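Summary for the steering committee. The consortium agreed at its last meeting that each partner would contribute one worked example illustrating the joint modelling workflow. Our contribution is presented below. We chose a case with several input lines so that the handling of multiple components could be demonstrated. No manual editing was applied between input and output; the record is shown as generated.
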Amino acid sequence: MKFLPSLFVTTSLLVAAPSFAHDEEALKTAPPGEPYVQVSDALPLPEFIPGLGTLFVDPQTLPAGPFLAYDHDGKLSATVYMTPLEDLQNGTAYDGLGIGSHTVSGVDIYYNAGHPGVEKPHAHVVLYHDADAKGRLAE
Amino acid sequence: MMTTRRQIFALGGGLGAALLLPRALSAASVEVIEMRGTARGERIWYAPTGLAIEPGTTVRFVNRDQGNSHTATAYHPINFDRLRRIPAAAEPWDTGFLLPGESAEVTFKAPGVYDYYCIPHEMAAMVGRIVVGHPDDPGWEGPAPATDDVSVEVLAALPSVEDILAHGRIERG
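What follows is the complete predicted structure of the assembly.
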């Protein structure tokens, strides 16, 4: 989109060099710290998005993510990926993506028409990290 | 639910681009266009997508989508250098991003056809059309022609002026 500053543009100057951390302990509770930024701080989106919770992302990893999804108590509940369908169709592959926790209890994949930050129609791939996570992120 | 009256614009009159109106004055002729979406964001739309109003009517855009933000932005060069799709006599507007529960009001004065879009959702063809007055009104300006500035999907999503005038409002939820 030619006129909407992307999250990458608006925040990449504010964060340190990216280095995805697989230190699960550091990511278990919000905020996860650098290089992650809270999505609602950088974009006009609700702080808590029903179904996704409070999202943090390393801007360098956009659009795919991982987006770390926290519940109302700040517990890491899901890792979310957002993959534009047009990019996939044109041959883009999103390989080797990070993950917030290596414990995954379930996965949801569904279509999203777009939102600030990832305007292209895309798929949400949601990895839940415990059996109750989906319910905690619902609203 | 929080309601934010972010902006009130008077369009097409001699009063300039922005004119704050007392709430009581505008309450008599206010139409509501809701910004809606499914819970997971598979579909997003304006409700109604097409609306017929009389000159001087205020339209309140309200975001009823709990998981997304939306704008109502006129196609006009002043808004991100887009080609004009509102009457030449009208002032352009942009509500800015409205979070869930927020709203903004726009007053339409110049007769004609107004096309607008949602900034983050134009790719998903979230667009709307407002018809102000009637084709025989002095100064009426009909719909803008198709151009490369808007996609085929956007043009297809805009209700026809004839349908809007015939039915008053077109819902495409």
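Residues 140 and 160 of chain B are 16 Å apart (CA to CA). The interface with chain A takes residues 37, 39-44, 66-69, 80-82, 97, 99-100, 119-124, 126 of chain B (CB under 8 Å).
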